[in-house]
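Design a sequence for this backbone.
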């Protein structure tokens, strides 16, 4: 009878140890899941510079795109491949009546102080030979010289000849899907009436749009000093490890 009781007790202990080990492995696999394959999500507020300087709030939109493309060339044929309104155009040639005068970028939000930001404040000035024109812009990011990836599309806005009074501003926060790295920015301008391609401005035109240290907000997390809390109530990961250790010690007693 004594031998039988010991055998039953050994089975119970073994089952407990296996259950605890399985729970620990399962929890570890959950926390180890990566977000590299996540779709890209960003939030952008757009406005004219004149309106922003007056304190007028701009329109805010959330954009979601496919996984960041990092392989392949970024030649001209790929610039508008992700832009649905202009993708049907087989050949894109700039319109000599439109051009970009300047662009400026200010980066913001580096919560973990690693030198990579998840906020982009982009200002650009598009000009035309005409008195005015209704246009919209598409903006792209390229990681480490890879293909262009669309990250924002503006509403229609008006440019007034060659004046600087029509400067436009896009303030974007990259929320997810953007690994830490060096990014370039490309701006394309389109006619709001027929979606025809008008002009572009990128890192080859100004250094302001080149080598920007960026990452998404998921990766820009402030480092918090580690605080070890001993849970004397028996829960939490520490409790699981104590139970596992006790189980192994008990098994060792029966299997010297």
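Sequence:
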């Amino acid at each position: 009878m004594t031998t039988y009781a010991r055998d039953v007790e050994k089975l119970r202990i073994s089952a407990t140890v296996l259950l605890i080990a399985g729970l620990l492995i399962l929890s570890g696999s959950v926390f180890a899941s990566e977000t590299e394959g996540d779709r890209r999500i960003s939030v952008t507020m757009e406005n004219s510079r004149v309106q922003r300087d007056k304190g007028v709030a701009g329109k805010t939109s959330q954009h979601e795109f496919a996984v960041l493309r990092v392989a392949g060339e970024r030649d001209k044929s790929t610039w508008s491949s992700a832009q649905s309104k202009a993708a049907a155009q087989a050949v894109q040639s700039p319109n000599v009546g439109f051009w970009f005068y300047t662009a400026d970028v200010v980066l913001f939000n580096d919560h973990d102080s690693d030198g990579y930001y998840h906020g982009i404040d982009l200002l650009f000035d598009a000009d035309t030979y005409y008195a005015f024109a209704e246009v919209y812009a598409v903006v792209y990011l390229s990681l480490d010289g890879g293909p262009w990836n669309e990250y924002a599309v503006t509403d229609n806005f008006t440019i007034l000849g060659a004046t600087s009074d029509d400067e436009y501003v896009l303030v974007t926060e990259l929320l997810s899907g953007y690994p830490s790295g060096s990014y370039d920015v490309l701006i394309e301008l389109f006619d709001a009436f027929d979606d025809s391609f008008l002009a572009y401005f990128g890192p080859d035109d100004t250094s302001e749009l080149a080598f920007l240290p960026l990452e998404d907000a998921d990766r820009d997390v402030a480092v918090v000093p580690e605080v070890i809390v001993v849970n004397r109530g028996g829960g939490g990961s520490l409790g699981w490890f104590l139970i596992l250790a006790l189980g192994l010690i008990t098994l060792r007693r029966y299997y010297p």
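Residues 2-34+225-254 form one domain.
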